[in-house]
Structures are given as C-alpha cells and as structure tokens.
Amino acid sequence: MKNINFLFVLIFGLSLGLTSCEEFLEETVKDQVSVDYIYNSPAGLEVGVNALYNQMRFYNLPSGDNSDLWANVFFMVATDLGLHRTWNTPYGTGHNPQSFTGSKWIQGYKIIDRCSAIITSARSIKMDEAAKKRLVAQARVIRGELYLDLKQMYGGILIDTIPTTPQNINDPVEYKVASDADVYKLIDGDLDYAIANLPFKVDPGRYGQGVARHIRGKSALWQQDWAEAAAQFDAIINDGTHGLVALADVWGQNGNHKESLFTYQKDFLLGPSDELAGGGGSWLSSVFTHRTYELNTNELVQDVAYGGQALGWFYPNNYLKSLYDQANDLRFKTYYYSDNYQDYKINVPSNPKFGQPITNPAIAAPNGNYRAWHWSLKKYHDSEKLPMTSNSYKDYMYYRLAETYLLASEAYHNLGNDTKALAYLNKVRRRGYTGNPESTVTTFDLTAWTLNNYLDESARELAFENNRWFLLKRLGLLVERQNLYFRSSPSGTISGEVQLKMTPAMVNMPIPQSQIDLMGKPAGFNVGYN
C-alpha cells in the first residue's frame, strides 16, 4: 500500500534537474537522464545519490529570501538566546497550520521518497557489492537523518519506506501517526547500516561514518539510551579522523577542516542555483549581521570585514551576552562582531579621520537602533562575499565535533560518570578560553557538572547553530526557557523589546493545513493547534 507520497509535488531526483510527477510520466525526459537509468544502472545509482546531496543542501541551506530560508532560520534563533527585529516573527500570529511555512515537512518527505527509491532499486542492480553498499549507506544516512528531523520538529509523523512510482501513485492511502518505537526503529536501522558500510574519511560534502554516528548518538539521546549515545560519540572522538581545530579556524573561510563532520559545499562557478552543483547564494551571512554602514555615511561604507551587505533581522540577545566571560572567553570576540565601537574604523577615504575609530554609535544611533548597531553574529561571516549583495557562496558547516563532545558530556553525566562528562565539557571550554584545541590549562575549568553549567557552555559554543531549539525540547525546557529570555523588538529599539509567548503546543511545529486537508484530517496530527 502506498501511504503518503501523492500528497506532494514529488521530486524524482536526477543529476542536475528535478521533475514533477507529470513530467515523470511523459515519454520525453526533459533533462535527458531517464528514471530507468537512475534506478537500474550502477552509474545511475551514483547519480541518484549525488542528487540527494543537492536536495539536502536546499533543505538545510536554501538560497534567497523565502519561506525555505525561514524554515531554517527559525530553529537557529527562536530559542532562549535570540532577539527578533523584523521579517518573520517567531511564535507570532503566523505560528499555525494555515500560515507557518511547511517547507521542512514537504521537502523532508520528498527527499525521503527518493532515498527509499534508491535503497529499493539498489537491490536489483548488479555491481560491485562494496560500492553498492556505500551508495545505499549514504541514502540511508539521509533518510534516517530526515526522519529524526521530522520527529524532533513535528512530534507525530508518518513513516513510509515505499517509493512512489507511476504504478502505485493512486493506490489506497492510509494516514496514521507512527509510534515512537516504529520511528526510532527505522531511524536506528538506517543509521546502523550506514555506520557498518561507510568509512570515517570521505571527501568534503559526503556523509561518512562520523556524521552517521553523530546522528545515531542524537537518536539515542532522544530515547534516553545513554550508553548507546556515549558509545557512538566516543567512537567519533577516539577514531582521530575528526578533531577540534584552533578557535580562529572554526568559522573561518574554510569549512572543510578537521572539526567538520559534514559541510555543505557551495561554488558560484558551478551554479549559481539550488538545482545545480554549485548551489544558490545563501543569506545566512546577512540575516544576523548589523548594518554598521548605516551609522554615519560620512564615516562608513559597506565593508566585507564588517559583514558587508547586511539585513539585521535577528540578533543574539542580552541573556546570551551575559553568559560570556567577556574579558577571558575568546569566543566572545571570535564568534561575534564586536560591540565596542572603537573596533570599527572610519573607512570613507575622503574623511580626514580615515582609519580612526568611528563616532560613538550611541550618538549616531540614539535609542539603540538595532538595524544599524547591535551585538551580532559572526559565525557565517564570508570574507569573500561580493559587495552590495546578501548572497554568500561560502561552504556551510552543519555538523561539527564540538557538539559531539558536548552531547557526549551529557550522556556520561546520565551514566553517572561525571569525571568523563567534565573532561569532555572542559575540552571545548579550554579551547574557548585559550584558542588552542589541545590546551591543558585548567584555570577556567568547570568543576561540577550541573544542567545549568551544561546548557550555558553549550550556548556559548553552539549558539545560532542548528541545535539549541532541539536540545531544549528534548530536555523539556523549551517553553520555559524561551518565555524567559527570547525577545522581539518590532521597533528595532531597546525600548521596543517585548516578550513573545510560546504555548506548550508549539513544541511541535504545525504541519501545513493543506497537507492535513489532503490526508482527510486524521487524528493525532497538529495536537493543540486550532
């Protein structure tokens, strides 16, 4: 029985292009790569797997200003660490099944369908067995990753491993919420297969054993299987393929360093489009950055060193700022644009004070104009971004070893081994204070593992990456912490800051109403939403 996929405008993954169901049924294949070739030949199987990476890059790093970008930005900023100024408003009037973007739900299931098609078709393709297993393993990592994503985001989800074909697209459909046990069995089965068939060392932009184990460890944490989580994280740490890098290099221009478990690849010369190998221009480097060049046009013009073209839609908030030891924690200056105006120099050549510190922004921007001046995020800084554009083609590190260490710390604490839990926590912390990933300086070590110490250190290291929202949800703290600290300032001023209340139902994202209607409004989905 085919049980879900006719709900979506399906992607049938090809090497460079995507076709709809209608196009798939036509005799002429417009991009000249037949579906038979994709799913019935060794070379075609590889083309299909390559297409999955393009689709995943669009899923997690879409180009431009659209609902797909918002679907990703939401999870980066709508936590206890964020401040909203403009654009889409987290937890506002649009947080409902009718209005909230359905990008993650729709795109996620599209890619799952193509993963299942590759996994299923590979069984009948005659080719080198080891090579086939490696290709299938990549498809299974992606499918397992997506099901974990959907489970974390939506709570009640569907599971389906039968790929859509012209023969089954009109089969009877059954819609029901899958049990937690069934969802995690599928996720863990896919990831365990991948772990068994992928090496640690892979080319940039490919899933290897490290990222498969990292996701498998996360799945174990959601199931409170602390021993399994610890074992998976230890395997990554002890293998040696991955390691922490110098603090200055973590979010430098090269995203394919040793700390990266997986980095999405961008290349303007091979694009620039989400459908092409190079990928479209990402706006992440502009979304979180203040517009210093608006402070005083006689002193400042756009400068790539100060973020270049910026949007200033979201910022780190004062709560996050309070967590840093600003005098000693090097991450405060490395991961963020400085909030000391003397660090910014007049760069208008005709100004007689060229090269001297800019005018005090408190004078230039009264009442704390957030758009022009605010403590802002530097992690996605692109030193090669062209002037006057929000498009960035910098590679995007999505999974990294620092998070592995921190999650391993949590797992060991829950196993009753705080000695190892603290060793892992302080490994990351020492790098933050010294810049050196191999530092043995104990001056700033934490001496007790507490939940607050753990959450605070995680915030200092991983803020505005794709993890805080999910971590707080897993720990049952999302609503409480968000309501305490998340702020919105529609006016873009200090005096305009307000709280936006998150309701308990919002710990699960709203499934698009269009999808609920097509399913016949079955029970168990969108619980708590009207």
Automatic annotation (TrEMBL):
The UniProt record lists the keyword Magnesium: no
Keywords: Cell outer membrane, Membrane, Signal
Main subcellular localisation: membrane
Keyword Signal belongs to the record: yes
Domain RagB/SusD: 301-520
Localization (cell): Cell outer membrane
Family label: Belongs to the SusD family.
Protein name (record): RagB/SusD family nutrient uptake outer membrane protein
Originating species: Flavobacterium quisquiliarum
Species classification: Bacteria, Pseudomonadati, Bacteroidota, Flavobacteriia, Flavobacteriales
